């Protein structure tokens, strides 16, 4: 009954096996092995578009260096107030870009409010050298709140980006969960919508360590080889990432894992829904779920061995006296048994939760 | 017959197996798992000293953040002219520290000349705010030239560091090879000598990706948690590094691998020694070997399937017209058969090269 | 009738004269002249406290380097949403500190709301390495809105700073105008209140170029000599600043200029107050005045030769259709004649506006 | 008898007078006044070329931001080992550019050796992402050693820059002294030779504070407005620099001052030449003179009131036991009387030293 986070899980067996398979033999280091090249080709196929792919060590690196690639002196990036790049990266985007400021945009359900976004971009664009200048818009999909931007919602943000000639970056730390949620193709979620750069996260979805920056807009990648090396993000034995991604992409493993995680998240939601003492916050659309509960219920769940995080209330809406927000995340390692176990703790039984 | 580099090899089978073993189950992310804690304890035991250990993604990250941890405004680090931090890290130390300048020190055999080192440190320390100030001395052991500082040579540099109240950093990208070469303990190579911070590299010695910064002088690590996260170097599933190091340290695998690599390097050297058309540059003491040869011999070896790098001559001494420097590196994956194969290409046979 | 800004004025005649006086003769450069030392002593006397004073080129430099001096990796500074360091410095604080993030705090009248401030500081302090950490609180006094924090308002913010062990920085770009407004001493406005570092601005108040960082908390200045030089902010002929400040401090010239500017600002306000088509925004307390007017009135004033800035509405409250915010700033160079001239344009006459 | 440095002098009377003249009246701040525009035009006339001019606070800022303007990730600049940007700027170029490394080039007489320069540029250009990449060549003229590159010497360096497609930067902290020394026009010293960016220093030559970056290659200035503001180098009352430069350029005051300084430096040299106990180091060509003397002579001169700096020997050639290098600098404020005074101390009389 561990819902701590999708990075509390280890690696999917097929991914671990691939690492063992590729452990033998010699190959060029620093991203120049045949396997590295093959994975880039597979990504092109998966996204139905030419692209440049760069492995980095962490999602924070992917986001920060993606934004660094489009930064300019005085540059300002626009992102939702709760975006990972603002709240959870310890200043890495400012640090690695050497200055970038991230302008927080309000919005319900973890999604940027269009009017607020336009207003802030306009204000900065209109001001002079003192105020800096817009350089990018960044969206997280799925969002930090477990919701997912629909394709038309992305279109609306993309239109603002295009109007102001700004590249559009997507933080896809849980990209596969978003795809499955929207039942769309990788292409439809990204470059069809005008996304220029994607932080393509695979770690949370069953890899040990596999994060990449994908440039659909290849000229933006011009300096990235140097940016990555200079930021100490160029793995020597880079095929250890490629080996993971080979298994990840093979037979749609990535989508199957995400379907599994999303499905179990929905089932967990149905359990909370059925429990009158629990209130689900926002509309879960991927593999994250935020629930308001009484402190004593949270204590009880933990005593029973349910692992989840108590979340800062900020922006989570009306949390009453004696209440707490719990975050639950599912992953490839989550089992139907674990989900049913939560139901058991709450005295709730829901049909249709399958599997072990 | 691949001697391209020790990072052309993949992962040692025991290390790959450990990753598979630890792929299952849940554990706290971001360096807070039980396994992460256990590995830190094992490192304390291996080094016979209390220490703080931080995993990072690359050796460049280890070096750059170690130096950032001791940096100050106007800071200058002193290192050998051929040091990895000067020649091979694309400016990462300057970038990640936000300014550090690295003052190159001359010296034979890849080792800093003591008089030159003292003279430069004195000059900077004596000057005022315009000239900056000394903040650290960094040595690479084994050096970039394949030589190894003896314990007394480290003592002499350490004495200068202590005299000027400078922390001493050691870039140990091939640390195990150095230990085996000097037949000394980890403690004797490091804090016994006054080394404050070690970049502890395991990737080149059989891991997929395992680099750590070890602080024997723990107060210097005060801000490192933030430095690492801010530099996008904090792995979420950090136990994938711990799992590698568990196997690495177990039953002295790391030392056994290094003994293997060093031994095969010596045997390769004996082959080149026996070939009058080849001149070994510097005294190989670990698992790297630099050889001056005629261009036609280099071409022939490559045609025969021997993989090695043609090295820039800079600092490699007298390279004649029509000659080239070849670098050969051995690793856990190097075989006696491969070494004998080089002998075969050169028509040289040497006794005592064992194993497959 | 020029109210463009207090930096549209040149230099006060006494300040220009002092520069001429000190143009002759030789003196040590880089802040080490006798005159530089004498001015530091005069500042100690004026502030009734020991302090370290450092000249820099601009107010942006003073603010950014003051914050850099107290920065740490992952550091977050708290400041009002409209603070100069957020809105008007093109990212200089992030850039010069190498990462600092500035967390915007809401609040009426250009002043931080105490509850909002405490809530944000608490949130960041409670979170872990991912969220960074609080490193300073910065207030602007007078504020960007032309209001002035009272002594007790500063006390309340200072209490939060002390509670969280954060240094308190004051951006005093118009410091003298604030003093005169509150009718208090330099000491009472600063270290009496717990202010640790002051950006002491004199340029806007009649100097050509005279900005200093004053550390009442001297240990915080430990690295500042290097910070300043490294940021290219160490003037060689530093006595050209000292010469200005000599005249500035002599016979309270600085306070007399501020009294003049504040008085004329009040008189200008009384004119706008008397004009029913104009609405004064916020309560002017120093030498800046924000007025909502109809676009046609703004056009008319400009045609008549009144110079002022059309200000972005953001945060300025309810600006109706066809209305605009005008910002008017007075300085040593503003004359009663100029102020009366504005009254003339508006058909308003107010008694008690003296002087030329 | 003050030869401490040309920044120990204050301001030339004509420059001080111009500041007083322009102290009155209102003008747009931040470089947008009519006077600012007029000075840019005068610089175009003086240099016989279109250009973009940006005032900054210090020579260090001019150099560091000029190089930042042409920097790229992994960027390496090539400069003489004794260049101000390496030895005297406390890491400002690395800091303000966010990473730049400066590769020191050897060379006699303070001038880069062509072969050494080419060899280093070639080495870096040939290496891959690990080694970074060349981004600029920077020369100082007059050099830090008081010598001056001839026009053909600049041509030779410029040819290497062009061959490798690198912009050529000139640190002209004492630019006027160099012009007068070579008896050439500003154009001939700069863009005729292929210089793309000039740090145009006027402070040392009689101004209080007047440094500018001049881009002859205007596309390189594209981001400079933002670079300057972000680096806290945009003066609000920028016309205080323009006012100085107005007087500086008027009736060739700048060249007359430089002629005066250079002439007195030659005369001082003739005194040292006539004194057998003194050895002039390098060939003084501008207004700096390095002299090897016995410590007791240095002591005696200081007792007699001669002010000069004892210079670090590094690179100054053979300094014997009991000897010291003295640096003497002349300026607009140096008098014939002062120079004759040195002769008096040494018991040397030389004809032809005129003026007070």
TrEMBL record, chains A, B, C, D:
Keywords: Pyridoxal phosphate. Its cofactor is pyridoxal 5'-phosphate. It comes from the Eukaryota. The keyword Amino-acid biosynthesis does not apply. Residues 3-294 form the Aromatic amino acid beta-eliminating lyase/threonine aldolase domain. The keyword Iron does not apply. Belongs to the threonine aldolase family. This is Aromatic amino acid beta-eliminating lyase/threonine aldolase domain-containing protein. It comes from Zasmidium cellare (Wine cellar mold).
């Amino acid at each position: 009954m561990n819902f701590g986070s999708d990075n509390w899980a280890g690696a999917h067996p097929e991914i671990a096996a691939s690492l063992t398979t590729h452990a033998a033999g010699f190959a060029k280091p620093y991203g120049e092995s045949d396997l590295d090249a093959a994975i880039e080709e597979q990504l092109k196929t998966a996204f139905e578009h030419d692209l440049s792919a760069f492995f980095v060590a962490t999602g924070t690196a992917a986001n920060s260096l993606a934004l660094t690639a489009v930064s300019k002196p005085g540059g300002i990036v626009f992102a939702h107030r709760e975006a990972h790049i603002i709240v959870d990266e310890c200043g890495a985007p400012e640090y690695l870009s050497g200055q970038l400021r991230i302008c927080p945009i309000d919005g319900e359900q973890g999604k940027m409010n269009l009017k607020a976004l336009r207003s802030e971009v306009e204000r900065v664009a209109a001001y002079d050298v003192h105020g800096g200048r817009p350089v990018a818009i960044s969206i997280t999909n799925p969002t930090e709140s477990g919701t997912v931007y629909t394709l038309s919602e992305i279109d609306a943000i993309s239109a603002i980006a295009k109007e102001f000639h700004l590249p559009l970056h997507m933080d896809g730390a849980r990209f596969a969960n978003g795809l499955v949620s929207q039942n769309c193709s990788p292409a439809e979620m990204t470059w069809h919508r005008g996304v220029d750069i994607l932080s393509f996260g695979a770690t949370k979805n069953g890899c040990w360590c596999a994060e990449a920056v994908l440039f659909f807009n290849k000229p933006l990648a011009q300096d990235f080889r140097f940016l990555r090396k200079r930021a100490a993000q160029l793995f020597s034995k880079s095929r250890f990432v490629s080996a993971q991604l080979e298994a990840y992409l093979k037979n749609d493993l990535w989508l199957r894992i995400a379907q599994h995680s999303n499905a179990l998240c929905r089932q967990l939601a149905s359990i909370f829904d059925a429990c009158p003492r629990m209130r689900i916050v926002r509309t879960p659309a991927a593999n994250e779920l935020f629930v308001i509960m009484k402190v004593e219920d949270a204590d009880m769940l933990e005593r029973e061995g349910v692992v989840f995080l108590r979340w800062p209330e900020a922006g989570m809406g009306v949390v009453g006296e004696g209440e707490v927000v719990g975050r639950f995340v599912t992953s490839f390692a989550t089992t139907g048994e674990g989900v049913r176990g939560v139901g058991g703790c709450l005295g709730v039984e829901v049909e249709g939760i399958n599997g072990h």
